[in-house]
Structures are given as structure tokens and as C-alpha cells.
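So, read this over?
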Amino acid sequence: MQKGINEIGLWTDSKMKNLNEIKTLTDENEALQAELASCKQEITNYQNKMLELQELRDLYDLDESYPDYEMTAAHVFAKDSTSWFSTFYIDKGTKQGLFKGANVLCGDGVAGIITECFDDYAKVRAVIDDNSNISAKVMPANALCTVEGDLNLYDSGYLLVENIDKDANVSIGDKVVTSPISDLYHSGLIIGYVAKTSYDTNNLTMTAYITPAVDFSNITDVLVITAEKKTVSHE
């Protein structure tokens, strides 16, 4: 009987030892999981910081591209319900010196224009919006034209450019910029680049499709030109 009791005791000790080892391994595993989660969070934080740094570099490069204009940076905090950033909101307003009609830039060129300005935020209408209509010109041909916003067309990645003189020397890759005669936009802001052209049935003009200089699927930070146009009216 004593032998049986001893064996039971040894078996119990063995099981307790195994349970303790399992608990130790479980604790170590939980500690490793917590450490792994912490490392993943640190990596995510680092990646976010790198993205923010790249965005700041992009804004700096954009600012350097237009040395004639004073600008201020703003952050996009909301947009409308469409897939694209056709209407969006920035976190600066009249208290920060902004105003209705101020031109908004990001990416490699013009994103849109402020249509409503409040104390600490403003609403921006993008150049792809259906209500956008911009007096522009194709460079280097210096051919006057009109850039029309069209959300359905932008689903294919393009903006419509109309009323180009049929004799203008327009080539694929040519730059389309805001015109000096525009009442709403400062001159020389890049709108996009010619992707394809076609002659109109009136035999007087041609139409072009351009790839915008801004990616309207994701806008996080912008620059706003703080100088007003001398004359402002609806285009």
C-alpha cells in the first residue's frame, strides 16, 4: 500500500511540475505576444512618421515649384461621400488668413479652389468636380482652352479639355496650366498633362483628355495660395 501511495505522490508531483511548466510557457508566450504587438506598433508608428515626412517633403517641393506665390499648408480632415476628393475640407479658415476663392495645390499642381471659408476651416471644390470650369492653356503651344470637371470621366482617370484651336501644335505629354485670363485661378498652375486628342466635328477646334497632376483618390495635406486674384467672378 505504501508503494502505491508513493507512486501516487510521485505522479501528483509530476503532474504539478508539468502544470507549472505549462503555466511558465504560457506566461512566456503571453510576454512574447505582448512584445511582438509592441514591436508591430512601433513599426506602424515609424511607417506613419515616414509617410508624414514624405508628405512634408512633397509639400516643400511643391512650394519650391511656385516661388512667386506665398502659401500656407493645411490638413484635409473630411470629404464628401463620393469615391474621389471632389469636395473636401481643410483645417484652416479666415482666422488663418484664408478666403473664398483661394487656390489650393497638392501633388504636382492645382487641386481646386475654396468655395466656402469659415473661421477655422474651409470647403474646397476640386478641379474634377462637375461644377468646375477653368480657363487654361496648353503649353508650349500657348493654346487657350477650357478644362471641364467631370466625375464620370475621372473614373477613367481623365479631365476634359475643350475649345483648343485645331491648328494648335498639341502633343501627347504637353502641360495644361491655368491661364492668365482666368478670373478664379492664378496663372501657370499645372492642371495636368495631355493624354490624347481628337478633332471636333466643327473642324474648328479639338478636344483633349488630360491626366490630372493631382491624385484625387487620396489627399491628406495641401498648400493654399494666400494672395487673391485681382478680379474674381464665376467661370
Q: What stands out?
A: Helices lie at 2-65, 151-154. The first strand starts at residue 71 and ends at 79.
